What does this fold into?
Amino acid sequence: MKDVVDQPGAAGGTDPRNYVASVIKSCNVVEVLGGGDSEYSLGEIAEATGLGKTTVHRLLSSLQMAGWVERGPRDGYRLSIRMLKLAHASQRQFSIRNEALPHLRSLAGTFGDTAFLLVSSDEGAVVVEMVEGESPLKVNTVTLGTVIPYHVAGGPTVMAAFDDQLRERVLSAPRTRFTEHTDVSRDALEAKFARIREQGYAFADEDLNNGVAVVSAPVFGPTGAIVCTLSLGGAAQGFGPDRLDHIVTAVREACAALSERLGAPASR
It folds into this structure.
């Protein structure tokens, strides 16, 4: 990790006169300490941040005085219980719905179709937020609170594809055929889930409702597990080859950005 004050456009393009470099450096140190190991040596922190050991020592001393950092049993440095309490407070204030809304609005505004946020439940994937675009053709069969089975549509099949336990549960349960395009056999669903995992997204074409298509992709959380999906759905004729690639790219980019915001591992 490089010292962010040395990078162009640091602090989101903020005027350098409006921020304190030592605070930014302290934040870099805190991020290293939150990286997962139980504690870190002075040298490890200096290497990870790109800062000199003398600077890191002064920053750590200041963070200790503030109560955010403490010494561990191996005489290294680690985050304190006080920092853990702050993390819990931040988590309580955090809402996936609020974080997803800008992406939903962007997708709906760009393509004119309806953008959806879905989360999992025991009964199926639940629509917890949606933003309608300007297209006169709406997905009237799916509204806030709609629960969709995991073997159909975009978001639900993405969830099953990226969750091993959920996928096995779906493959072992009875499945309803909604249209002539609904996959209900185990072999067909296994192939679909494998394809989704390989591609990183799902394109569902009239398998839940005739005339409706949807593109969905996964959003991952800090542990690397899927936490929700973002989708764009609309009239099937609007998802032809000339437009589909652009939709897939936009949905995947939105999911990647939200995953990063949620702290997903870089490998995801």
User: Anything to note?
Assistant: The two ends are 19 Å apart (CA to CA). The mean pLDDT is 86.
